[in-house]
Amino acid sequence: MTDKLTVGVLGTGIMGAAMARNLARSGHTVHAWNRSRDKAEPLAADGVHIAETPADAVRDADVVLTMLYDGGTVREVARQAVPALRRGVIWSQSTTTSLDDVAGLAALAAEHGVIFYDAPVLGTRQPAEAGKLTVLAAGPVEGRETVTPVFDAVGARTVWTGEDAAAGTATRLKLVANSWVLAATNAIGESLALSKGLGVDPQHFFDLISGGPLDMGYAQSKSALLLEGRLTPAQFAVNTAAKDARLIVEAGQQHGVRLDLAAAAAERFARAEAQGHADEDMVAAYFASFEGEPPA
């Protein structure tokens, strides 16, 4: 089978747009749909065909990739798309959803004879645009030869977690990884907020930990976004981080694990959303540390 495919991409937000663009640059034929068409239109300059409906985007597809906001959105859009799919088409579901959503979406795929892969990605805007995401994937061995060129176009590495996509082993790993990322993001924000409140120059803090076991490249890069006022365009938005934090808390509750930090993270992101920072980079949760504007 040729490794040049026809791919239907449903969802062209921060991540989906970058993935569609990299698929087209890799020589695949890409049809993309987004609820707000204006977010998809710029992809036409990269050779992506913009579809009017989800069904139009997937009608001729060898592989369908969903990168939407949440599980509910995926269900809604997939129900419009799957009737147009040929039996045996591959569905790579890359939206971060709940474990229950993974099982439900896998069942929907099975009803229509579609081969389902649980395939969330690890990374933000910059690695997505560079085609350097890490793809976490679970699904049947038969079909992997077809879907691998898609994963290779959007990612630098694919980590296979199992053959039973409905079990959500890839999503489980993604939720664990995101629990660390969101905790680190909020820890960075709180440290910077405390330095602001106490009148400490943040650079003194970074000088203190630089090169030692407490130093972390992620802390340095995220802090720079905040301190230099580069919160837009977001690498990963506050509202999406809030959604993921809620999913992490829910997964923990379902499996008897109390996640106090994740619950606090969800609250902080929600406060930042309410303060008007929903579309800014998730490090803008920093502002949730203050009732009003941060002290001068």
- The ordered H/E elements are EHEHEHEHEHEEHEHEHHHHH
The CATH level-2 architecture of the largest domain is identified as: 3-Layer(aba) Sandwich
Question: Can you give the helix content as a percent range?
Answer: 40-55%
Radius of gyration: 20 Å
CATH overall fold name of the largest domain: Rossmann fold
Count of domains: 2
User: According to CATH, what is the class of the largest domain?
Assistant: Alpha Beta
Biggest sheet: strands side by side, in what order? 3-2-1-4-5-6
Count of strand segments: 9
- Mean pLDDT reading: 97
Shape: globular
**Poorly predicted residue ranges:** none
Element layout with pairings:
Elements: E1 6-10, H1 14-25, E2 29-33, H2 37-40, E3 49-50, H3 54-58, E4 63-66, H4 71-81, E5 90-93, H5 99-111, E6 115-118, E7 121-122, H6 125-129, E8 133-138, H7 144-154, E9 155-162, H8 169-198, H9 202-209, H10 217-227, H11 238-254, H12 260-277
Parallel strand pairs: 1-2, 1-4, 2-3, 4-5, 5-6, 8-9
Antiparallel strand pairs: 7-8
Structure description:
The protein folds into 2 domains: 162 residues, 3-Layer(aba) Sandwich (Rossmann fold), CATH 3.40.50; 118 residues, N-(1-d-carboxylethyl)-l-norvaline Dehydrogenase, domain 2 (Orthogonal Bundle). The longest helix has 30 residues. α4 links the parallel β4 and β5. The mean pLDDT is 97. It starts with 5 loop residues before the first strand and ends in a 19-residue tail after the last helix. The strands form 2 sheets. Strands 3-2-1-4-5-6 form a 6-stranded parallel β-sheet, with helices on both faces. The chain has a 3-stranded mixed β-sheet with strand order 7-8-9. The protein contains 12 helices and 9 strands. With 296 residues, the chain is an alpha/beta fold. α4 packs parallel to α5, α8 packs across α10 and α8 packs across α11.
